[in-house]
Structure to design on (70 residues):
């Protein structure tokens, strides 16, 4: 469980870092991969499904706001 959560945190940080750097296409690809990882974590019971959906929503909100500012 610990390694899975650590990998998720790293994936989220990578995705948000790409978005903040203005690399929107790479951020979109990374977000899709991160979303898949989060969904799998919810299915395994690492996180509550609504918690996962909230995280995904916030990730895409940050990516979209970075798109508008760039």
């Amino acid at each position: 469980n610990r390694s899975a959560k650590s990998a998720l945190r790293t994936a989220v940080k990578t995705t948000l870092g790409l978005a903040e750097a203005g690399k929107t296409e790479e951020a979109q690809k990374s977000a899709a991969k991160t979303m898949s990882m989060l969904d799998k974590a919810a299915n395994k019971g690492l996180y509550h499904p609504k918690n996962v959906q909230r995280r995904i929503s916030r990730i895409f909100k940050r990516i979209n706001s970075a798109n508008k500012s760039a």
Summary: The radius of gyration is 12 Å. The longest helix spans residues 24-44. The mean pLDDT is 93.
